[in-house]
Write a structure and sequence with these properties.
Layout (H helix, E strand, L loop, with lengths): L2 H32 L8 H19 L11 H24 L9 H27 L8 E6 L2 H13 L5 E8 L8 E2 L2 E6 L3 H10 L6 E4 L6 H13 L3 E4 L17 E2 L15 H8 L3 E5 L4 H11 L5 E6 L2 H14 L5 E5 L5 H11 L3 E4 L6 H6 L1 H21 L4 E7 L8 H23 L3 E7 L1 E2 L6 H10 L4 E3 L5 E2 L1 E2 L1 H15 L11 E4 L5 E2 H11 L10 E3 L19 E3 L5 E4 L6 H16 L3 H11 L26
Parallel strand pairs: 1-2, 1-5, 2-4, 5-6, 8-9, 8-11, 9-10, 11-12, 12-13, 13-18, 14-17, 15-20
Antiparallel strand pairs: 3-4, 6-7, 16-19, 18-22, 21-22
Helix pairs in contact: 1-2, 1-4, 2-3, 3-4, 8-16, 9-16, 11-13, 13-14, 13-18, 14-19, 15-17, 18-19
């Protein structure tokens, strides 16, 4: 017999023996309590029968299979039910055999003693096992839990089951002030998250300041979390997050692995309700093509659209490794979605025509672009080729193959651009706007342009850079103390891109064709504040443990980005988080002639002439070629959300 089966049978036998002894003791104790001075014949025999009865009753209740150390409230209810049922069976046996009861109160006494004898030892054993290894509390890290009662209970249970717990929980900071002064799970609720500063000051005065704050609620984020972090930072208290509720489990072989607070948790953004039914109607059963599918936005587009069951999905990128990564992920998570991976350069017109003619996409999401401002400044012709002529090549090929809709992913850097990258994206917007207007007049493919700011954690963005610099011990480099940017998580950005696609696909819901959809990015974030926050989240002190160094504006950069041009008045769309800019469109013939000239000058390697054409088409292009231009004051009102 395998050792594991022998051990299991041994545990079952031990549990049955203990239950039998406890039931026998309950019979004797009940008789002594109800008739202490009487000598009742058959008492010892009835004790033996009590053991047999609890074994019999215990079968349907699963009594012998219950693990004493992990006894839950539900388990205690089962044990109590088994005890009462055993008492009732014994009373019936006594009456049925013609024996007299030792006392009229004996039935109630027997039920009570059965409950106590079967339940109390289990509770005592659990308490002993869960606290027996916690004698060295002075060596533990003192911690204050931040969350609600349910999440705190889960964390405490997981901590109690840990073989050698390293955290000593001293109290609870609740999410709501109405719980202050009460007790939850044996812990005093010493305040609410809105009073974090006062709570920590009071604990510091009393000498009870914890070493650590543990966030137990996975939904606790945004400005409320930022205030808790700021209060903790003043007192040198570290803040960590408990594992996700689905992964909180007994840690017999190790410790609970607390996680650092992510910078995404601090974005003060409310969850936006999306029209997922509309997305399903747009995508389900259709052939969908994504360019730049290996990038941050393109990959997330592929992930989210795969969940809407497209007829087929084409992933197109010019990078083999990035393309392989997203293809492998979709193979694992969405194996039923037919898809094809294509290595191609969007600047190759002939290749784009062949790919679209063969695949015949119905929806095209164009995310391929050169996006790094200094690199495009150093390689302006490459930026023009990819961002402008590449967009034209994809749009023309998609339209020729009968696509119904193309979605262009644009950027806030296209508004009053100071960089070649921003100006090229604005020219790409102009071409797609002109195509959209032409489709309204002559039929054909519609074009939707979606403009938004920085995506946290995307390739080449500041957050991964700060992570690398932190890992090396700093310093963190920031170009200017007043540098601000809009930020959004990639998942939220792509969800709103799909929402814009749904709205843009319905002609009747647009005020004017050629409009640009703009994502509500919330409030801009100062990059130096982001750097300091990331240092704190790493458990370090800004300017003490990790330095921040200002390096100066780079070529093409400006201090403040904008989401709307001065002549693009925001228009509400009826969907939260999504606005629309009234169009500034150009004549299609003029745009096409300019693009042909750019292509010709690029082929000749004439950078200055190509940039001159770009500046003519984008007159607001104020090129900060060397990074020394004055970026001016921050706009007082970036846009009017009410329209």
């Amino acid at each position: 017999m395998p050792a594991i089966n022998r051990r299991r049978l041994g545990n079952l036998a031990l549990n049955m023996a203990l239950d039998g002894i406890l039931a026998s003791a309950a019979v004797v104790i009940a008789g002594w309590l109800c008739a202490p001075g009487s000598s009742w014949p058959g008492r010892l025999m009835l004790a033996v029968v009590g053991a047999l009865a609890v074994w019999l009753i215990g079968v349907p209740f699963g009594l012998a299979r219950l693990h004493w150390r992990y006894t839950s409230m539900r388990d205690l209810a089962l044990v109590g039910g088994a005890g009462v049922s055993t008492a009732i069976l014994l009373i019936l046996l006594i009456i049925g055999s013609g024996l007299s009861l030792p006392s009229p109160s004996y039935p109630l006494g027997l039920m009570f003693s059965m409950l106590v004898c079967l339940v109390a030892p289990r509770i005592a054993y659990r308490l002993w096992r869960n606290t027996g290894s916690s004698s060295a509390t002075k060596a533990m890290t003192s911690a204050l839990l931040v969350g609600n009662g349910e999440t705190a209970e889960l964390f405490l249970a997981a901590l109690a089951w840990t073989a050698e717990p390293t955290y000593r929980v001293t109290g609870l900071m609740a999410l709501s002030a109405r719980h202050t002064g009460r007790r939850m799970h044996g812990l005093d609720v010493i305040g609410a998250v809105g009073q974090a500063e006062q709570v920590l000051v009071g604990l510091a005065v009393s000498g009870a300041l914890p070493d650590l704050l543990i966030i137990t609620d996975p939904e606790f984020s945004g400005s409320a979390l930022a205030k808790v972090l700021a209060a903790a930072d003043k007192h040198g208290v570290q803040v960590l997050r408990a594992p996700n509720l689905t992964t909180l489990s007994p840690a017999e072989q190790g410790q609970l692995q607390l996680q650092p607070i992510s910078i995404e948790d601090l974005l003060n953004r409310k969850q936006v309700r999306l029209d997922r039914d509309g997305m399903a109607r747009l995508i389900a059963g259709r052939r969908v093509m994504v360019t730049g599918a290996g990038g941050s936005i393109g990959a997330e587009l592929a992930r989210q659209m795969a969940g809407f069951a497209p007829a087929s999905l084409m992933l197109l990128d010019n990078g083999e490794f990035a393309l392989w990564q997203i293809d492998l992920e979709l193979t694992e998570n969405h194996p039923a979605v037919p898809r094809i991976s294509v290595i191609a350069d969007v600047r190759d017109e002939a290749r784009m025509r062949d790919v679209c003619a063969e695949f015949k996409p119905e929806l095209v999401f164009h995310a391929a672009a050169l996006k790094h401002v200094p690199i495009v400044e150093a390689n302006p012709l490459e930026g023009l080729q990819t961002n402008v002529l590449g967009t034209k090549a994809v749009a023309d090929a998609a339209r020729a193959s009968g696509a119904a809709l193309m979605v262009l992913i644009s950027t806030d850097k296209a508004v009053n651009p100071s960089s070649v990258m921003g100006a090229t994206k604005r020219l790409a917007e102009l071409y797609c706007q002109a195509l959209d207007v032409a489709s309204c007049q002559n039929g054909g493919m519609g074009c939707v342009t979606v403009r938004f700011g920085n995506v946290l954690g995307s390739t080449g963005s500041v957050v991964p850079l700060f992570h690398r610099q932190l890992a090396k011990g700093g310093p963190l480099t920031v170009t200017h103390p007043d540098m601000q940017r809009y930020f959004m998580t990639v998942r939220e950005a792509v969800g709103l891109v799909l929402q814009a696609s749904v709205v843009g696909a319905k002609d009747g819901e647009r005020n004017k064709h050629g409009s640009i959809f703009v994502l509500d990015m919330g409030d801009p974030v100062r990059i130096v504040d982001l750097a300091r926050q990331m240092i704190r989240l790493a458990g370090l002190r800004p300017d003490i443990d990790i330095a921040i160094r200002f390096t100066g504006l780079r070529p093409g950069e400006k201090l403040f980005e904008e989401l709307f041009h001065g002549s693009e008045r925001p228009v509400p769309t009826g969907f939260p988080g999504l606005l629309m800019a009234r169009p500034r469109v150009a004549d299609m013939a003029q745009v096409q002639a300019a693009l042909a000239e750019i292509a010709a000058q690029g082929s000749n390697g004439n950078t200055a002439a190509a940039l001159a054409v770009l500046a003519r088409l984008v007159p607001e292009f104020a090129h900060n070629a060397d990074g020394s231009a004055d970026s001016g004051e921050a706009p007082l009102a970036i846009y009017d959300k009410a329209g």
